[in-house]
Every structure is written in C-alpha cells, then in structure tokens.
Amino acid sequence: MARAHPLNVLATLDRARTQRYHFTAAAIAGTGFLAGAYNLYSIIFVARLIGRVYYADEIASPGEPGGQLPPDAALALSGVAFSGTFVGQLAFGWLGDRIGRRRAYGWTLALMAVSSAASGLSFGREAKAVLATLCFFRFWLGVGVGGSYPLSAAIIAEYANKRTRGAFVAAVHAMQGVGILLGCTVALGVCSVVPEADHVWRVILVAGAVPAALSFYLRTKLPETARYTALVAREPKRAAADMSQVLRTRIQEQDLDVSVGRIDDEWGLFSVQFLKSHGLHLLATSSACFFLSVTYYSQNILQKDLLGKLGWVSPSPAASMGAVQEVARLARAQALIALCGATPGYILSVVLIDVLGRRRLQLAGFTVMTLSMLALAISYDHWTSHAAGFFALYNVTFFFASVGPNTTTFVAPAELFPARMRCTCHGVAMAAGRAGAVLGAFGFLSKGADSKYASGIGTRNELFVLAGTNFLGMLMSLFVPETRGASLEVLSKEVVYESIDMFMDSNGE
C-alpha cells in the first residue's frame, strides 16, 4: 500500500542551523556509545587480573608460566561478548524500527548498566564458577552494547541537519576512543587506591554501569526522532509538535514546500524491491565493515604481544611484578597507543567527514592500511628486531582506520536506508563487522601458545592476509555512494523534492 509522507518538519530539520539540541542529542547518543566501548575494552585489564588471581598456581599452556588465563578461558571470555554484541546489533536494530529509537535505546542502556554492575559482582570461590557467571553477564552486556550501535547512529543521524550530519554521527562514534581512554584512566585510578587484585577488576567492571545509567537518564530529555514519528509511526502532527519545542519554532504541516513522492510500505528486507533499491548498498556497507574488523581486531590481539616485546608489560607476569602493578603499566601503554593513533584519527574524522566526504575518507583509509600491512609483511625480518619501528607503523594503521573506515562504516549505514528499515540495516552491517572481528580476533587468539608468536608481531603470511582484507575493503568501498550534504529521505529514495537545490549542500555537490 502506497502513501505520501508529510515532510515539512523533516525539511525544517534538514535546514536548521546547528544549535544546542544537536549537541544534546550527540551527548546522549555518545554517552551510551562511550559506555559500550568502556565495557568492551576494559576486559583487557580484567583478563590479566583474573589470570593472576585465580590461575597463579596453574600452567596456562605448555611452556607458559602461571598467572595467565588458559586459552580456552580467554576464548570464552572474549567470545561471549562478541556473540552478545552480534545478537544485540541484529535484535535491537530490528526493535528500533518496530518500537522506536528512543524506547529501544532505553532498553539497551538499562541492560548495559545492569549487566556491567552484575559482571563486577560475579560470584564463586573457584575460577570456573567466577568465569561462568562473568561470561553469563558479559553476554548480556554484549547484547546491550550491540544494540547501542544502530540506535545511537540512527538517533543522531535523524536529529542532525544535512550540512553537519556526518560530523555529529562521527562525533558519536569518536566516543569509542573516549571510552577506551576512560577505561585506562579508571584502571589507573583503581590500581592506585585498591590494593587487592580481586577487588580491582570488580571495581573496573562495576564502574562501566555509570555512563550507561547516565545516558539512560539523559535520553528522557529528548523526544522520539521526528523521522521515526512522521515516517514510521505515521504521526506527523506529533512530530511537528515535538520538533517545534526542540527547535523553538512553530512548524505547521500545511506549509509543506516540497512535492512528495510515494513509497511502497509493503516490501521488507528480503524482498526483491529492497534488493533492487538498496541491496548493493547493504552488501557494500556490510562487506566494508567485515573487512575492516578482520584487521582491526586481529591487531588488538597482537597488541598484547607487542607490548611485552617493548617491555611495557611483563611477558611472564607471575615472575616479575604484582598483579595491580602490571595492570597499571598495561593501562598506561593502552592509553599511549590510543592517544598516538586512534584518538587523533577520530578527531580528524569529525573535522573532515563533511568536507571531503565519507567515500573519500573510507577509500583513503583502506588504501593506507593496505600499504602499511604490505610494508610490515615485505620487511618482516627487519621489523622482528625493531619493535619500536613496528609500533610506529602499527599506529599509522590505527590512525588511518579511525580517520577513515572505522568511522565511515558506522556513518554510511545510518544515512542510506529508509527510516522504517534504518536501524535494521545498520544492525546488519555492524553484525557483519562483528563476524569479521570474530574471524580476526580468534584467528590469532586461538594460536596464543604457538611459538611463532615469540616475536610478538605475527608472521609474514598473516600480515599479507591482512593487507588483502584491507584491499578488499577498499574495493567494496567503491560501491558505497557519497551521502554528504543530502537529505536522508532523498538518499533512501523516500521523497522527491521539487528543486534539487533543496537537498544539495551549499557547494552544489
């Protein structure tokens, strides 16, 4: 059944000057995303401490000292969070299109806050009991974190104006870097005041509930997005009333200044109509997310070995320093890596995304990442004896990933698809990325006891493989259209404006 969309309120949102409510919406969505990043990445410190506390007298694997998580325990601890995130991205993406962004986002934040607190309270006297309860709560934490991806992206994309939409969505994604730094800061702070290692990891996890709870409260300050209310819930008058309060202006639908096209609301994600209109977009965005994550998460796994080779953390923790001291050193090293690579990249992506466009940044990022991996692979023998040089080139990869595809693969799916399928499609793209993360992470982590990792930087063949995945990501990026400066409804083919000038940016692009 076809219907016409009342779009005066949406045209008003597209033309609105950047003002306070834009920053409020970004802060709300960004705080939830920060909470998710904090809770996912803080497991690095937690795993170290649990190994030291519960496996101090056990040998993790042949030839390894005690005080480390056995490979199967490490796989389980990482795997449940990945699995939960995958489920959350698909489930809450679908829910966001069914019950509304604001309501579904509240559920993800509540789940995240409760699971964070419960993770720190994991009970049991033996290692297996503690890990079992921790894995249970980490799975549900992952579900909440996964849900924050499509919902936070859709919320800020639908609130933003078309001129600065990319910067605001990128800023929300950049809160991932802030979450990583916050995790390092909390770890350092807790290590300085809490002497017991078993208490340190619990406090670190419980602290993750704070930003999630804060975002849950702050989301009550803004109404449902006008695009969901008008286009999905079909209540244009309520959308106009909500946005009139937010924009502090009066919006009347009878003043509609666009001619509205028609859209068939019957077809769904698996229909022929969707494949014709958006199938290539979904394939391209999902594939780019997948290939990016293979490289990004495999590098995170290699990172711990590199830090040991540089002497920033102990390769034999049980023999050299206390558990709390070791985690403090690890937190400082992680903060340095984030400050040198990822964080500057996130900042630059916010500055450039509405200037150069999403497509250019993504292509440039994948290109540099490909060249970096090739440089490491071709000169592999040199890098095995020059860890500092490897570290510098390693950070170049993270920097350009953050400037380009790590940000743009989050932005593009929030702009290309119709409002009634926006969260679902974004969740599918992010879930494809999570599948790539599993392949990249477990492909390396499962070989953790292999002697070929003694150098701490993997093997030449694996680096060539990562160069290949980056190249494939670059190729798939060619099929992602540029979205800079265009109305969401035009990009998703939901409306046709009277004049092309109404949806093009000031540069006519």
UniProtKB/TrEMBL annotation:
<keyword id="KW-1133">Transmembrane helix</keyword>
<keyword id="KW-0813">Transport</keyword>
<dbReference type="InterPro" id="IPR020846">
    <property type="entry name" value="MFS_dom"/>
</dbReference>
<keyword id="KW-0769">Symport</keyword>
<dbReference type="Pfam" id="PF00083">
    <property type="entry name" value="Sugar_tr"/>
</dbReference>
<dbReference type="GO" id="GO:0016020">
    <property type="term" value="C:membrane"/>
</dbReference>
<feature type="transmembrane region" description="Helical">
    <location>
        <begin position="392"/>
        <end position="412"/>
    </location>
</feature>
<dbReference type="InterPro" id="IPR036259">
    <property type="entry name" value="MFS_trans_sf"/>
</dbReference>
<feature type="transmembrane region" description="Helical">
    <location>
        <begin position="335"/>
        <end position="356"/>
    </location>
</feature>
<feature type="transmembrane region" description="Helical">
    <location>
        <begin position="424"/>
        <end position="443"/>
    </location>
</feature>
<feature type="domain" description="Major facilitator superfamily (MFS) profile">
    <location>
        <begin position="25"/>
        <end position="485"/>
    </location>
</feature>
<dbReference type="InterPro" id="IPR005828">
    <property type="entry name" value="MFS_sugar_transport-like"/>
</dbReference>
<keyword id="KW-0472">Membrane</keyword>
<comment type="similarity">
    <text>Belongs to the major facilitator superfamily. Phosphate:H(+) symporter (TC 2.A.1.9) family.</text>
</comment>
<feature type="transmembrane region" description="Helical">
    <location>
        <begin position="363"/>
        <end position="380"/>
    </location>
</feature>
<protein>
    <recommendedName>
        <fullName>H(+)/Pi cotransporter</fullName>
    </recommendedName>
</protein>
<feature type="transmembrane region" description="Helical">
    <location>
        <begin position="168"/>
        <end position="188"/>
    </location>
</feature>
<dbReference type="GO" id="GO:0015293">
    <property type="term" value="F:symporter activity"/>
</dbReference>
<feature type="transmembrane region" description="Helical">
    <location>
        <begin position="200"/>
        <end position="218"/>
    </location>
</feature>
<feature type="transmembrane region" description="Helical">
    <location>
        <begin position="104"/>
        <end position="123"/>
    </location>
</feature>
<feature type="transmembrane region" description="Helical">
    <location>
        <begin position="73"/>
        <end position="92"/>
    </location>
</feature>
<feature type="transmembrane region" description="Helical">
    <location>
        <begin position="129"/>
        <end position="156"/>
    </location>
</feature>
<feature type="transmembrane region" description="Helical">
    <location>
        <begin position="463"/>
        <end position="480"/>
    </location>
</feature>
<dbReference type="GO" id="GO:0006817">
    <property type="term" value="P:phosphate ion transport"/>
</dbReference>
<dbReference type="InterPro" id="IPR005829">
    <property type="entry name" value="Sugar_transporter_CS"/>
</dbReference>
<feature type="transmembrane region" description="Helical">
    <location>
        <begin position="21"/>
        <end position="47"/>
    </location>
</feature>
<keyword id="KW-0592">Phosphate transport</keyword>
<keyword id="KW-0812">Transmembrane</keyword>
